[in-house]
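Message: A physicist's question: would you kindly supply an amino acid chain plus fold tokens?
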Amino acid sequence: MMGALEGISFFVKDRTFRLIFANPFFFRRLGLKSEDELLGKDDFELFPEPLAKKFRIDDETVIKSRQPLIRLVELFLNQQGIPAWYQTNKFPIFNRSGKAIGVVGTVQKYEKSLFHPTRDRRIEILITQFRQAIAKPISISNMAKQIGLSHRQLNRRFKIATGLSPQQFQVRSRIEKACELLRDSPKQLVEIGFELGFCDQSAFTAQFRKCMSMTPRQYRSQYGLS
């Protein structure tokens, strides 16, 4: 049944985080022709290292906490270094004794249409403004007043619609644009940081590393024009 979920990658990992099942959407996303090509492999054998490290941390958290991680909305790099938004859900697998023995999860592309699954038109307005004015500081309090919500209501409804706080969404939208500039332009890192609204290169580097598991310089070295 999981193999028939349109557009949803489904996977199962054992206690050592090696894949023991994946549906066609999962292995085809990696350019593989069959499930056999990835069974027994871990993320470090299938994904770029920054991605693999992030996946491993999440898997270990699920096993250790015995709690699911749901609606994780994050930027991930594909093999060409181009970031895309994905939503991930991970759940622990228990044996009959109640011991966590693996992880099961789903991953799907977080398309633009999924940024408003609640059909919340007022939140859509804010999302559009964030994506159109990436480098412009936006006051959440002022935006809340403009769309007729309290600050608390806006934060709650934004989290329901996107899985992120407004601040997280704004920062990750900036990092998405930063990847484009680092790949396709010769601009200096400090120039890119200022252009995207970061106060200095240190702040830009810290946020970039947090989102992409590598520094802007490492990203440009691996995926840039040169």
Q: What stands out?
A: Residues 166-184 form the longest helix (19 residues). Strands lie at 8-14, 19-22, 69-77, 83-94, 100-109.
